[in-house]
Amino acid sequence: MNKTIQTKKDTIIPATIFLILYAIWAILVASENQFIREFDQTVISIICNNNPAVIKFATTFTNLGNTNVIMIETIILVIVLAFCRKFAYAFFSAGTMIAANGYNWIIKHAIARHRPLTHHLVAAHGYSFPSGHSVGSATLFGILIVLTILLIKYKATKTVLCIIWVCFPILIGYTRIFNHVHYPSDVVGGFLEGIAFLLIGYSFLYHYYLENQRAQSTIY
User: Fold this and answer.
1) Which of 171, 137, 168 is nearest to 69 (CA)?
2) How many whole angstroms separate alpha carbon 3 and alpha carbon 9?
3) Where, by residue number, does the polypeptide cross the bilayer (predicted)?
4) How far apart are CA 181 and CA 178, in angstroms?
5) Which residues of 95-121 are buried (b: 16+ CB within 10 A; e: fewer)?
6) What pTM was estimated for this model as a whole?
7) Which of 76-80, 116-120, 149-153 ranks highest by mean pLDDT?
8) What is the pLDDT of residues 161-211, one digit of tens each?
9) In three state form, how does the secondary structure of the chain look?
10) Which value, in Å, is the radius of gyration of the alpha carbons in the chain?
11) Other C-beta atoms within 10 Å of 83: how many?
């Protein structure tokens, strides 16, 4: 009994930590804290430039994080998991994505931060914090990391795929800053929110499915 309770607590602790970090970050952004302003200015000065090749990459690659693209990718993932009779993983993927993006919409309108006033290299609408591209990509590719770890048997394949999944949200977040449609603090906030919801979703998956599966395999 004590071991089971301790295991459940251990899976919730990382989610709680990221929720707290996200809440602190959101408060700093909403209050227009001096640290956030200096952080944004410093990162923008490092990232942004007029290199034509980088501009071409950034304006193209950023489309992978569009809401419609992320939604289509999620639907395909859920359908594939359901077709393979991995229903618990399908519910985990769909539920986590719906919760993260739904909460992001609420926070965007609650904080109502306007986008950078500089010229946008791509079209962007709505409020700035948190970055929807960052939330969506961090959550989706985080889900892919979890699924890869749980479902892929070969260690080398698992490692390569996880590295690829990590690169996608990082590059998408980078393009949002480079294209002048988000402040760096928007992207960081999006990553923190996405990871927090990913860990919450995994906690549910672990408590209500993985733990039971392990218990049954031990019995039989």
Assistant:
1) 137
2) 10
3) 12-30, 67-84, 91-111, 131-152, 159-178, 190-210
4) 8
5) bbbebbbeebeebbeebebebbeeeeb
6) 0.88
7) 76-80
8) 999 999 999 999 999 999 999 999 999 999 999 999 999 999 888 877 777
9) CHHHHHHHHHHHHHHHHHHHHHHHHHHHHHCCCHHHHHHHHHHHHHHCCCCHHHHHHHHHHHHHHCHHHHHHHHHHHHHHHHHCCCHHHHHHHHHHHHHHHHHHHHHHHHHCCCCCCCCCCCCCCCCCCCCHHHHHHHHHHHHHHHHHHHHCCCHHHHHHHHHHHHHHHHHHHHHHHHCCCCCHHHHHHHHHHHHHHHHHHHHHHHHHHHHHHHHHHHHC
10) 19
11) 9
Rounded (5°) CA angle 133-30-21: 70
**Can you tell me the distance from the alpha carbon of 178 to that of 144, in angstroms, rounded to the nearest whole number?**
26
Contact (Cβ atoms closer than 8 angstroms) between residue 123 and residue 59:
no
